Amino acid sequence: MSQNIHDHKILILDFGSQYTQLIARRVREAGVYCEIHHYDFPESAFQEFQPRGVILSGSPESAHLEDSPRVPDYILSADLPVLGICYGMQTIAEQLGGKVEGSNKSEFGYASIAIPTGSPLLSDLEDSVQEGNIFNHDVWMSHGDKVTAVPGGFDVIASSDSAPIAAMACEEKKIYGLQFHPEVTHTKSGQQILNRFVHELCGCGRLWTPANIIDNAISTIQEKVGSDQVLLGLSGGVDSSVVAALLHRAIGDQLTCVFVDNGLLRLHEGDQVMETFSRNMGVRVIRVDAEDVFLGKLAGVEDPESKRKIIGNTFIEVFDEEATKLGDVKWLAQGTIYPDVIESAGSKHGTAHVIKSHHNVGGLPEDMNMGLVEPLRELFKDEVRNIGIELGLPHEMIYRHPFPGPGLGVRVLGEVKKEYCDILRQADAIFIDELHNADWYQKVSQAFVVFLPVKSVGVVGDARRYSYVLAVRAVETIDFMTARWAHLPYELLEVISNRIINEIRDVSRVTYDISSKPPATIEWE
Ligand code: XMP
């Protein structure tokens, strides 16, 4: 069998479900390449894409209404396996002559479905309980409408108390519908169901593996850039680090990375990046010490948006200067990942979710006139991490919490001064260290300290201390759009607070931020 990772692929048509990206991630976990496209995917693009099967997502729409979004007819007659999930199933039913009814009673949460023996998609799943000719299985439901009559040629292949048609199939045409969500982990054998669909029913092999993805990326990069020079702005974050490692493997010395130390990094961060890339991996990294430039421009500026703009623009100036010094560089490498691509495509169709517009330090200067190399464009974050590990990057770097582009610039409230950054760096290092010690680092999604430019009175020994206040923040989140403050144990908070106040003379008080997002944001500025 050929090892081209794109030989076997699945097309996912998006009807606007919050779970669409999750479906894609599960298909990728099954070792199969897939792409998400708007439900109105043109036939010519479909012919070119050549999927081995199609999955239809859920939707907030109602399939029984006349002007609801529909699966293009050519898909349902394409002689390819099709799997409709939730709304995807309902629109198949409507379009092929069945019936869907609205209901003012929604069903959210676990349901037990009964599956007759013999269904190639659903019977004999792990975690099923068999009673005679029926398998009982726990699944996750999230729907209001439901199918009340299957189209001709379809059989009911699962039923639950509240959804008597919980799944349907036309085995002859290999068209399937599931009312429940196999892509969420609450459906116990959801991954197994999707595996069966992509492997057994669509005939896809497990070609999409980290090793194959790396081989493919390397040959694609080599073909694209030939013997040209490539430039990468290395931030030390996961995406740019993986791009650096991948490009280094592909083109060695033709890659030059520019790492801008803007004075807004965490303790020893610059040295760690240089250690990992330059000294251990032999990547050519130019470290630009630009602390004075950044802090100079930030002097006297208190407004958060102005600070963000200054930091973003200064980064571009510094980066641009270095690129000009290097001269003959034809390509600029970027760590764009698949969710960025989906979101910008989504906005073209007007179906995009609300996305925060962050300045990403490392963003490209628009007038640089270079071609783009974006080797992570097809990958989800978890795939980028797996590749990073496979390429030999340190685990701590790959599984680090995210760090905002403007760095400590938005964690020192108000005017940014070196003295404040130094205090913050020390406190942040203590906090992170104690989270690791207590095994809490990986249990929270992001954790950091914020510097408040106010002083409070304390007493140390017999002496009065009048010094700064810090806030400690830790949150749990899946997508960083909403977040809950982490319920760290009091004992741990006590250790953290004691260490910070005892070890840093300029701090008199530590507070813990108990605001969730919304209404607060994760960062304070
Ligand atoms: P907020 O504060 O908006 O943060 O709730 C959500 C996530 O985004 C990160 N963040 C940024 N990342 N450039 C970035 O690259 C930025 O300007 C920026 N601002 C916030 C923040 O750390 C959190 O993970």
Question: Topology of this structure?
Answer:
Blueprint: E1 9-14, H1 20-29, E2 33-38, H2 43-49, E3 53-56, H3 73-76, E4 82-85, H4 87-95, E5 99-101, E6 107-116, E7 129-131, E8 134-143, E9 146-149, E10 155-158, E11 167-170, E12 175-178, H5 190-201, H6 210-225, E13 229-233, H7 238-251, E14 255-261, H8 269-280, E15 285-289, H9 291-298, H10 304-326, E16 329-333, H11 338-349, E17 371-373, H12 381-390, H13 395-398, H14 418-437, E18 446-460, E19 463-476, E20 484-485, H15 490-503, E21 507-512
Parallel strand pairs: 1-2, 1-3, 3-4, 4-12, 13-14, 13-16, 14-15, 16-17, 19-21
Antiparallel strand pairs: 5-9, 6-8, 7-8, 10-11, 11-12, 18-19, 19-20
Residues 308, 356, 358-360, 402, 404-406, 446, 480, 517, 521-523 line the site of xanthosine-5'-monophosphate.
Q: How large is the count of helical segments? A: 15
Q: Averaged pLDDT, please?
A: 93
The structure class reads alpha/beta
Largest sheet features: 7 strands, mixed
Radius of gyration computed on alpha carbons: 27 Å
Shape by Cα distribution: globular
Hetero compounds? xanthosine-5'-monophosphate
Percent range of helical residues: 25-40%
Biggest sheet strand line-up: 2-1-3-4-12-11-10
* Beta-strand proportion: 15-25%
